Amino acid sequence: MTDLLDTFDWAAVGEDLAGSVTLVAGGARGTGRLVASNLLRLGARVAVVDLDPGRVAEVEKDFAEYGDRFLGLSGDCTVRSDMQDTAARVVEQFGALTGLVYCAGAYRAQRPTLEVDADEWDLILDSNLKGAFLAVQAAVPHLQRAGGGAIVAISSLAGRTSSPFLGCHYSAAKAGVLGLIRHVAKEFGPTGIRANSLCPGGIVGDRMNDLLTELHREQDLVELAKQTPLGRNVHEQDVVGAVLFLLSDLSRFVTGATLDVNGGILTV
Predict the structure, then answer these.
(1) CATH of the domain at 170
(2) The one catalytic residue among 66, 102, 107, 170
């Protein structure tokens, strides 16, 4: 009987990530930036695209040590031509594209559903769901030419239930991401592409702190941690670990899945 401890070639797993080329949409701040940083440290080639040219310039400066293994791009994920051009630039720079991580998306502090106007609905749906669709649409042909690859989309606990801090539009958009990724996994699996979603709880960081301050609910994170079986809230590093797993050959037979990163606050 084969020793199960020998079934993974760990060196090959590392080499696979080191040889990857990943585009991180929304990668100039927060979780996306940390994903990019960890991939670069592993030896991968990484591009980030972000709506804000100032954030792109800042991350280019911070990642200068990685030289030509890093590419920073400005672009709007809700504009098809921007996403098509971004994917083409990545392939021009690195010769291929093997991974896509979608972290982009706007949010607004929660208010009653009847007070959400059409413009705000469109902003949240476009940046979180339409952007994910356009990024996938731009990336898939290049992933296919590379012989396959991995797509990871950051959804949210809100997409599995609802959001205690954001609005109906955010929950709807993040639920839509789950459906999109399931469909992509089934349609493009035969060409060697895996697609999976991550559903974090509220991630501790500047964005969450600003949001709770705006809502005057600063103590909510303390209460949320008490309700979580693992006894704390979600950190960016928790999400990044799951992203790296889904990008790597460790998850080679995982596709169309939704991975909850919430400390057990939701179990289904």
Answers:
(1) 3.40.50.720
(2) 170
